[in-house]
Amino acid sequence: MKRRDFVKGTALTALGASIIAPLETLAGSRETHLESDDLSNAVVADDNYPLNFVAIGDWGRNGEYRQKEVADQMGKWAATHANKFIVSVGDNFYPKGVVSENDPLWHYSFENVYTAHSLQYDWYPVLGNHDYGTDPEAQVRYSKVSRRWNMPALYYSKEIDIDKQSGKALLVFIDTQPIVYDFKEREPEKQLQWLDQTLANAPADVKWKIVIGHHPCYTVGPRIKNYDTLSIRKALSGIFEKHKVDVYLSGHEHSLQHLKADGHTHQFISGAGSELTEVTAGTPYCRFQASEHGFMYFSINAGKLRVNAINDEGRVLYETILSR
Ligand SMILES: [Fe+2]
Ligand SMILES: [Fe+2]
């Protein structure tokens, strides 16, 4: 150490000690509570629906195609309605995913778009086909960079308390691209076995089984009969029926839809986070379809599950309530 630094350091230490000692005797506590470090939503959940979450898909376009407007509206909605977390149903980054956890697209298409305080909650994502364009695992690794991006693996599950007395919702997040295109190296059969087991092992207090993936099993958009839709339907329908899955929530089609084909499972598409594609009316198994920018809002209690579709102007386009 140079002499000059030694003198400076010694002087500061002596000065510090002489200031800190009297302050400590004056202060009642070493902790101050002048600023809140609590990000929790100020809106108390409606007693009727203690568990709420927002679902958005097909969004990452550098704020364009009204991505920013949808994000702003989602922020306003989550600031005025109780919300615990955000689900992303994939196609998180166009056109080809992210190249790494340091890709600037994290800023251009995510962090600097979903800026509202009310959106600084846990995001639970799945991947879409576009996310497979470069490094899909980078989106798992980003969970170590971001406090709010929570993607523990390419597929994973969460049991979430509805409230302390009402049991749980089981959310199962799946990785549909390897299933649709049978990427052998990614062992799609193993994932399907895991899905089957996870649903089979659901604890007795699970009131709702919700599966989240990118590709829809049914749609009234452009992919109504294409390979993707038929392939994922073939892979998942049997498992959904066997375990009485209540809701399958997906994206891929750039619209908002509620579909109820034969069987137990209600299907929702929330893929309107940026660019839009058309929908057609009049299909018997379709209960709601809108080619409008927006997102969905799910509200859950032990006996009922409510779904709202909200557009980029904050208008509620649709509401449905499912009962157990
Ligand atoms: Fe998409
Ligand atoms: Fe897609």
- Major pleated sheet: 7 strands, mixed
**What are the distinct ligands in this entry?**
fe (ii) ion
Q: Using the alpha-carbon principal axes, give the shape.
A: globular
Number of helices: 7
Taking the alpha carbons of the first and last residues, their distance comes to 73 Å
DSSP, total strands: 13
CATH superfamily: Metallo-dependent phosphatases
Please identify the top-level CATH class. Answer: Alpha Beta
Strand order of the largest sheet: 4-5-6-7-9-8-10
Helix/strand class: alpha/beta
Average of pLDDT = 92
Which fold name fills CATH's third level, the topology?
Answer: Purple Acid Phosphatase, chain A, domain 2
Return the domain count.
1
How does CATH name the architecture? 4-Layer Sandwich
Oligomer: single chain
Segments where pLDDT lies below 50 for 5+ residues? 1-15
Rg, Cα atoms, Å:
23 Å
- Strand residues, percent: 15-25%
Helix-strand pattern, N to C?
A: HEHEHEHEEHHEHEEEEEEE
Residues in helices, as a percent range: 25-40%
Describe this structure in words.
It catalyses: a phosphate monoester + H2O = an alcohol + phosphate. The protein has 324 residues and is an alpha/beta fold. It has a single domain, classed as Purple Acid Phosphatase, chain A, domain 2, CATH 3.60.21. Helices cover 26% and strands 23% of the residues. It contains 7 helices and 13 strands. The chain has helices at 3-26, 67-80, 105-111, 137-141, 176-180, 188-200, 227-242; strands at residues 51-56, 85-88, 122-125, 156-161, 168-173, 206-212, 247-250, 256-259, 266-270, 286-290, 294-300, 304-311, 316-323. A 7-stranded mixed β-sheet has the order 4-5-6-7-9-8-10, with helices on one face. A 6-stranded mixed β-sheet has the order 3-2-1-11-12-13, with helices on one face. The longest helix has 24 residues, at 3-26. The relative contact order is 0.14. The model is unreliable at 1-15 (pLDDT under 50). The protein binds fe (ii) ion (FE2) (2 copies). One fe (ii) ion is lined by residues 91, 128-130, 214, 252.
